[in-house]
Amino acid sequence: MADDIHGWSEELARDPSSLVFLQLGEALRRQGQLEVALKIALRGLERHPRHAEAHDLVARIAVDRRDFARAVEEWETVLRISPSHLGAMKGLGYISFQQGRFNDAERFLNEASAGGAGTDVDAALETVRRSSGSIPVPRVGDDPAPDPQRLFADILLDAGQTALLLDANGYVMGGLYLDGDGNDLGQEIGAQLSGISDEVVRATRHLDIGEWRSILFETHAAVVAMAPAADGSLLVVAASKATPLGLLRRLLDRCAQRAAEWLGAGGSR
Amino acid sequence: MSSPFTALLESLSRQRGVRASLIVSENDGLVVDANLRFGQDGDRVAALAASMYRKARMSASAARLGAVGFLQLDAERGRICAVGGRGDLVIVVVAEPAANVGLIRVELLKALDSLT
Amino acid sequence: MNIATVEPWVEAPLRRYVDDARARLALLLHTSGQVVAQAGFTRAIDVMTACALASAVHATSAELGRQVDGRPFRGLHHAGPQRQLYLAPAETARGAYICLTVFDDESSLGLVRMYFDELCKELMVAAPPLAPLREPALAVDFERDLNANLAAMFGRN
């Protein structure tokens, strides 16, 4: 990747009107170098103001910078230039979802689906419908089967999301953490992450900011949120890096509610 | 006295609801530079925030989740946001519970880019 | 962590300190080098050596401070590849003590300094009133006191 970036940079330096800025900007975006990526993309856009992919690139960088207003503006421009642009439809669907405008999200994703966007968009549509309440989330007690590993299964929206309920010693009480091969790494991941809560408790105590409610962090591979639960237990929710932080918070709240109900019922469903 | 970080910290502290902004050394937990409101104990914030960030980084690494970038702690009476992961420096913001954390995150990521 | 003290009022503050700061070893001593309390050491000989060295280093850095800054330096920090030490004086109603803290990457200098400040405050509060002044200690008394303190901490009479 570093070699590619170097090569594209050199090509762009040789020929500033080259379209290679699209690959370079995207590679930098994926590496998290958002400010540099934005500069490259805007410079390219100056030379190619009617190029849909250039606007699409700026929009994607804007989303990573959580500048949703800019992203909407750019994707709307993309659709004016290229009305069947699937990336722009998906992007606008994504932002609508992130902002809680589920009807708009469903409309954009439906259009993308009709345009042949594939199974990912169908899965996203189901997520939107579930979030908007079209598909109800069952409560504890609705399912008579007592399987702690599946405690959060119906709340999680896709295969990249996972939730664990850990006891005060870092042992898993409920939930699963599956790797790409389907192995449950819950015990290992839980043990590693549970130590963070000790640091958090110490920080809040000494900084006099009251009880902690949640901690959230973005890693190279995932976004992770944790919250304290009853009896010193700890809830951990993780999702792919592409998951909006607002959605992660929403998942954490839902899982926390489920954990509270489950613990309140004595740890059985 | 101004330092290379003065403008960066002033920009962070101008955000609504921000009580303090600091640049800290992750490994030592010491203040490198800070913009604090009256009454804020910068040494304390630096030691605790750096320790929390480092623990998150080490735990995430052990759990094979990769490097930690942005971190946000929400408590009843305050929020702590931090970014790092590029060298030993971590940028920390202490904010009111009602502060716009999305905006703070964007500003922190911008600040991190300008550090490196 | 194993903690042993010659003066019982020191134990609770020191235990809190090593727990909170996640210190690996801690040693509280008189400026003369006599041990007051230790946490984490397993052998008397190590305590004795550490006390002698810490006392000498503190005296040296205090004097260097006087020479270059007009007053004694307070805290002293050294970092090794695995472990670090922090050496600083703690004033109490019973006089000045020195505290040697050894820590690793479970902690940090910032945390150790923060909790050390709290230890100083707690020692100040916990210290019982000073007993009437004794006769000046002769070298022989010092040796006797030192050995008595070590014997008390490691259970040898």
How many strand elements of chain A? 5
Taking pLDDT < 50 over at least 5 consecutive residues as the criterion, the unreliable ranges of chain C are: none
What overall form of chain C do the CA principal axes indicate? globular
What is the highest CATH level, the class of the largest domain in chain A?
Answer: Mainly Alpha
CATH superfamily membership of chain C, which one?
Dynein light chain 2a, cytoplasmic
Question: What class, by secondary structure content of chain C?
Answer: alpha+beta
Measured by DSSP, the beta-strand proportion of chain C falls in: 15-25%
Q: What's the arrangement of strands in the largest beta sheet of chain C?
A: 1-3-2-6-5-4
Written overview of the protein:
The complex is a heterotrimer of chains A (269), B (116) and C (157). Chain A has 269 residues and is of the alpha+beta class. Chain A folds into 2 domains: 2-131, Alpha Horseshoe (Serine Threonine Protein Phosphatase 5, Tetratricopeptide repeat), CATH 1.25.40; 148-264, Beta-Lactamase, CATH 3.30.450. Helix content of chain A is 54%, strand content 12%. Chain A is built from 10 helices and 5 strands. Chain A has helices spanning 2-14, 21-30, 34-47, 52-64, 68-81, 86-98, 102-114, 119-131, 186-207, 245-264; strands spanning 162-166, 172-176, 212-219, 222-228, 234-240. In chain A, helix 1 (2-14) runs antiparallel to helix 2 (21-30) and helix 7 runs antiparallel to helix 8 (119-131). Chain A is globular, with a radius of gyration of 22 Å. A 5-stranded antiparallel beta sheet of chain B has the order 2-1-5-4-3, sandwiched between helices. The radius of gyration of chain B is 13 Å and the shape is globular. In chain B, strand 1 and strand 2 form a beta hairpin. The two termini of chain B are 22 Å apart. Chain C is an alpha+beta fold and 157 residues long. Chain C has one domain (3-154): Dynein light chain 2a, cytoplasmic (Beta-Lactamase), CATH 3.30.450. Chain C is 45% helix and 23% strand. A 6-stranded antiparallel beta sheet of chain C has the order 1-3-2-6-5-4, with helices on both faces. In chain C, helix 1 (11-21) packs antiparallel against helix 3 (109-126). The radius of gyration of chain C is 15 Å and the shape is globular. Chain B binds chain C through residues 24-25, 27-30, 43-44, 46-48, 50-51, 54, and chain C through 105, 107-111, 113-114.
